[in-house]
Write a structure and sequence with these properties.
Length: 251
Amino acid sequence: MISKKILHVVVTVFSLGSSAVMADTSTEQPVPPVKFLQLSETVWMHTSYKVLKKFGAYPSNGLVVVDGANSILIDSAWTDAQTTEILDWARNELGHPVKQAIFTHAHSDKMGGVGAVLARGIDTHALALSNQIASASGLMPAEFDLTLNQNDKALNFGPVEVFYPGAGHSADNLVAYIPEAEILFGGCLIRSARAKRLGNIADANLMHWGDAVGSVRHQFPDATLVVPGHGEPAGAELLALTLQLVTEHGR
């Protein structure tokens, strides 16, 4: 039985180093390989990196959730090449090939690898607004639109519940919850324990961000492990931290 405490999360980590890509920076710093962290018996976190001149190798998280003989991908990596590594890992190492993919908003850290997923014939889903934004911003949209309005009842994808709390980090940010494991994927709506500010707010709705986090907390009160879009997983205190940052820096 997997403990509900973050300190007892299974920390089996794999890294794939054969296909590391080089970022287009003056230093040509190599991008670290994609990594995988086991969060429960059926949920793994994938972390991919992009080298940013200001921050160096910057991580972005998503999930692979086992669903019977197959699995569900929540968010791509930054690139098609990194996302291909994730898909290969799910098929060859995990033994549960990805059959569905859900993308939580239309930024390159979450939808930069949609093309790799589509190339495998995998069903891809994103909020209708995300697909519109992706098409307008040069990203590949998902094949299927999710017709979710703010605070609608969560949509079920097998073991995954998908919820739209309204605008926050972006106008289209979704969250995902795995009830069996009590794991909440907050995506970029939720900040990590090390965050001092709200991060990228170029597309943010600062006035509604706090309300969106409150809706997530109300919708999923049993969440014991929260995965932010960037940084380490922790407990439900990440929601309170994000609300604090919104109050301090978001208005």
